[in-house]
Amino acid sequence: MRALLFCLLLITQAASAQVYTYIDAEGNRVFTDKPRSSNAEPVMLAPSNSVELSQPTATVRATPPAVTKQAVHYQLLRILVPEPDASIHHGSGDMIVTLTSEPGLLPDHNYRLLLDGEPQGEASRSPVFSLRHVDRGTHQLVAEIIDSAGLIVERTPAQPFHMHRMTLAQKRKVNPCKKDEYGVRPECPLKDKPKDDVSILPFF
Asked: Rounded mean pLDDT of 189-199?
């Protein structure tokens, strides 16, 4: 038992404290780290085997800064002119389309107009678009707001309108062709020009 205590004492004290031994009054050998007797003698200990474990270097991964894109919301985007399901009467199929948004167009944003799914002209900060020679029939208009990268920020539902173009016969009926207008007005071709009356009376 004393040998076991001695070993435990050596294990716990060897690293930092001095161990002493002496014979107590009852003739027992005592080991201690504090010399309480005048005849205590230091014990020479063999150096202990110690292994210093290297701590693994913590790998710190740089976290890239989060890129947050500010969401842009327009409260309103609509086609003012023409109104939904409007009927437009124009001989040449020309028309004006006007857009509006709330708030107004933000920096680096543009309006874009689509007719039957096809962009009309270049995107612009102007809310007014001029369309020419639109075919007769029913068509669909869509307004968009796009950013500098061409990405759609806002978009309206498709809005129908009806283009009515007068035929040449209808134009001639509304505004009859005069003799000097044949070959000048599209609805008055030369082939339809009435021939001059020829007198059948003999010339005297």
From this structure: 77
